[in-house]
């Protein structure tokens, strides 16, 4: 897929992630809801729990509300889908007319994920410092979505350098602003950092939105994001680590509609007279007119000239050239002045 810029259609990714709760049937239902809501892609997360987290890795604070255990590896194990499941989901997305994406969360599943030949490769926030993973991704020469949650600017740039060191063109990298909390405080969305990274490094930008609601996603599009990623769920009250930071289907559809409307409003970089406003141009602008009777040969001055609609006569921008000239004929009040 060609890299998009801010003035082309925004790519919307419905992040199903692990909101399927380990159920293939629920995963398929979420694909349907993502398609119906207008998303371009339905996205998942692929991992082997024992390869991602050691037995000593704790669960995150936001996960403790619904998971009673202490080990992250046990939580992740309950959310795994098999390779066969993912192959079926690829086929199902194709049947439903929506793109399929999934994130590889460890090197062990990376080759399988990349074999699915999706349009993008997603580097998750947790792997932005994973040197061997970045090397592998960079060597594949495919568009990359680089998520930047819990990262400093120099860490993001170092990841870009590693990707480029393997031959990946910077034009194929989209840097995704992200705040790693679920839900994330909207005051920590830090969208201006997205703008800065795009300007500083000449990369496309996107926003992986973990805030509640969809206002931040809409604002990101207005600021130039070419990719929006947002979690989707059937019900925010469901048990699971990401449901609380997700939009329900109708909310997601509202977000997509708002994103599309905002994207339309961006237009182009050149200030032009649009087709819609062109008929109004003469109506709202003004011409130089006589404010009283002016006799032939009389000198035009601020005392006998004024400016009124419509703009079918001499533009008021010619005022300095008209002042001091002699009237070539007489004028009645409100009559448009002709060139001397």
| Major sheet characteristics | 8 strands, parallel
CATH topology of the largest domain: TIM Barrel
Indicate the structural class.
alpha/beta
| Low-pLDDT stretches | 1-7
Structural domain count: 2
Question: What percent of residues are in strands?
Answer: 15-25%
In whole angstroms, how far apart are the ends? 61 Å
Characterization of the model:
The protein has two domains: 11-266, Aldolase class I (TIM Barrel, Alpha-Beta Barrel), CATH 3.20.20; 273-340, Type Iii Antifreeze Protein Isoform Hplc 12 (Alpha-Beta Complex), CATH 3.90.1210. Helices cover 33% and strands 15% of the residues. It has twelve helices and ten strands. The strands form two sheets. An eight-stranded parallel β-sheet has the order 3-2-1-8-7-6-5-4. The longest helix has 18 residues, at 249-266.
Features:
TIM Barrel, eight-stranded parallel beta sheet, disordered N terminus, alpha/beta, 12 helices, 33% helix, elongated, 2 domains, two-stranded antiparallel sheet, 340 residues, Type Iii Antifreeze Protein Isoform Hplc 12
């Amino acid at each position: 897929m060609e890299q998009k810029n801010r003035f082309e259609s925004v790519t919307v990714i419905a992040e199903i992630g692990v909101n399927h709760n380990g159920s293939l049937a629920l995963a398929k239902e979420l694909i349907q809801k993502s398609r119906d809501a207008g998303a371009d892609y339905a996205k998942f997360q692929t991992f082997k729990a024992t390869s991602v987290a050691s037995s000593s890795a704790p669960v995150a604070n936001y996960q403790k509300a619904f998971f009673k255990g202490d080990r992250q590896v046990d939580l992740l194990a309950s959310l795994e889908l098999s390779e066969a499941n993912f192959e079926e989901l690829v086929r199902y997305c194709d049947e439903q007319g929506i793109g399929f994406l999934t994130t590889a969360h460890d090197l062990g599943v990376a080759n399988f994920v990349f074999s699915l030949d999706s349009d993008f490769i997603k580097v998750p926030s947790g792997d932005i410092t994973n040197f061997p993973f970045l090397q592998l991704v960079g060597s594949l020469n495919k568009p990359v979505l680089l998520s930047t949650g819990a990262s400093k600017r120099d860490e993001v740039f170092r990841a870009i350098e590693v990707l480029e060191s393997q031959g990946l063109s910077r034009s194929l990298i989209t840097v995704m602003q992200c705040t790693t909390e679920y839900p994330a405080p909207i005051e920590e969305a830090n969208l201006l950092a997205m703008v800065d990274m795009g300007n500083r490094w000449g990369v496309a930008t996107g926003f992986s939105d973990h805030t509640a609601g969809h206002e931040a996603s809409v604002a990101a599009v207005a600021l130039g994001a070419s990719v929006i990623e947002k979690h989707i769920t059937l019900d925010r009250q469901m048990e699971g680590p990401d449901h609380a930071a997700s939009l329900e289907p109708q909310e997601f559809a509202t977000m997509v509609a708002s994103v599309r409307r905002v994207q339309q409003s961006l237009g182009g970089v050149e200030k032009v007279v649009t087709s819609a406003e062109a008929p109004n141009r003469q109506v709202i602008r003004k011409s130089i007119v006589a404010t009283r009777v002016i006799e032939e040969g009389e000198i035009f001055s601020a005392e006998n000239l004024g400016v009124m609609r419509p703009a079918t006569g001499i533009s008021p921008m010619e005022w300095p050239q008209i002042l001091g000239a002699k009237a070539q004929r007489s004028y009645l009040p409100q009559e448009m002045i002709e060139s001397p």
